[in-house]
Design a protein that fits this description.
- It is a single chain.
- This protein is α+β, with helices and mostly antiparallel strands.
- It has five helices and ten strands, in the order ββαααββββββααββ.
- It is globular, with a radius of gyration of 26 Å.
- The N terminus is likely disordered.
């Protein structure tokens, strides 16, 4: 790209400090069919893929020779959704995708993959038997599903080539968003700062509702890459990157701790822990309950290094009916509430594993 008249030959006033590009919001839906049982599994993902590396000349010299088109990245996501044996697991699929990109393109030094999973659950169907319990027994339908709420599981994967060229390292975070929860008692908020700006009344029993955003991180692990650049796979296809990818590609470093390859189990435990603490904690505040959640997740998942929560306080305000002589504001008698979306409290924190 030419410079304006009168400025040709002048040095650039800035330098390219960092650069990253890729494809956002790649929507993928995959059906996996078991030919023997006729059972189908489905997953729906929103995928983001970004890369770093020797791509600076596309910015500074308008030279696209180093650019793998973002449309090609979308095609790679779809291709791996077809051939990867890990497509039903968002963490393993994201790791496979990141390793594939670095193995296929030698000038990329890092790949960043975010996989957001939408919830589908099997529809229960009646078997025609009451099971002796007076009700219809349900079994899971083989290929019929329903959208199980707005909650989304996500995985963030970074695969970065080692500077010595011997493999790569993977950094993985997992979590969930938009897990809406509510309990109608077992929560209080008292003894906070009271000054000239305070109008909030202290309460020893209130509705506690929030939309949970949870993010946890693993320790860094080593990853083996495939051959760099153009090469042939076992069937003679050229330049396809790493197709045969599995747990053997990882260096667990002998810790015996949980590993991002097992994120499905960790994610399920973290979700159940979050729900259990929320339900059973006699909450003095959102902050106190959040801290207990994080401590439990760390205690139950060796290898998880930090846990972060963002908890917006979903307010339910008792309707004042004093004008007609009805008490609906004291905690014991408050039964009719007005949900209030905004403004809302917003509480967040990260709990990191203590150094030993």
């Amino acid at each position: 790209m030419s410079l304006p008249e009168g400025r040709r030959g002048e040095a650039a006033v800035g330098v390219l400090a960092s650069a990253r590009y890729g494809k956002d919001k790649v929507r993928v839906f995959r059906v996996v069919r078991d030919p023997t049982s006729k059972v189908h599994d489905v997953v729906e993902y929103n995928v983001t893929v970004l890369v770093e590396g020797a791509i600076e000349t596309s910015y500074t010299q308008a030279d696209n020779i180093v650019v793998v088109a973002t449309d090609s990245m979308k095609n790679i996501v779809n291709y791996l959704a077809k051939v990867s044996p890990h497509v039903l697991d968002p963490a393993r699929f994201g790791l496979h995708l990141g390793v594939h990109l670095l193995s296929r393109y030698a000038h990329f030094t890092a790949a960043f993959v975010t996989v957001e999973q939408l919830r589908w659950a099997r529809i229960g169907t009646g078997t025609g038997s009451d099971g002796g319990a007076g009700g219809i027994e349900l079994s899971e339908h083989k290929h019929a599903f329903w959208r199980d709420g707005t909650e989304k599981r996500f995985v963030e994967v970074e695969v970065a080539r080692k500077r010595d060229g011997d493999g790569a390292v993977a950094r993985v975070a997992g979590g969930l968003r938009d897990l809406l929860v509510l309990k109608s008692t077992g929560s209080a908020f008292e003894n906070f700062v009271r000054d000239e700006y305070t109008t909030l009344v202290e309460v020893d029993d209130r509705i506690f509702s929030t939309s949970v955003d949870l993010r946890y991180t693993y320790g860094e692990v080593g990853v083996k890459l495939g051959p760099r650049g153009d090469h042939e796979d076992s069937e003679g296809r050229k330049g396809l990157g790493v197709i045969n990818f599995g747990e053997e590609n990882f260096d667990k470093r002998g810790t015996g701790a949980v590993h991002p390859w097992e994120d499905a189990k960790v994610g399920a435990r973290a979700r159940e822990t979050t729900l259990d603490v929320f339900a059973h904690d006699e909450s003095a505040s959102v902050q106190a309950t959040l801290y207990k959640m994080g401590q439990r997740v760390l205690a139950e998942n060796a290898g998880v290094e930090s846990v972060g929560y963002v908890l917006p306080n979903k307010h339910y305000i008792p309707v004042d009916m004093k004008y007609i002589g009805v008490d609906n504001t004291t905690p014991l008698n408050a039964e009719v509430f007005t949900p209030v979306d905004a403004p809302s409290g917003l509480i967040s924190a990260t709990i990191s594993r203590a150094m030993t």
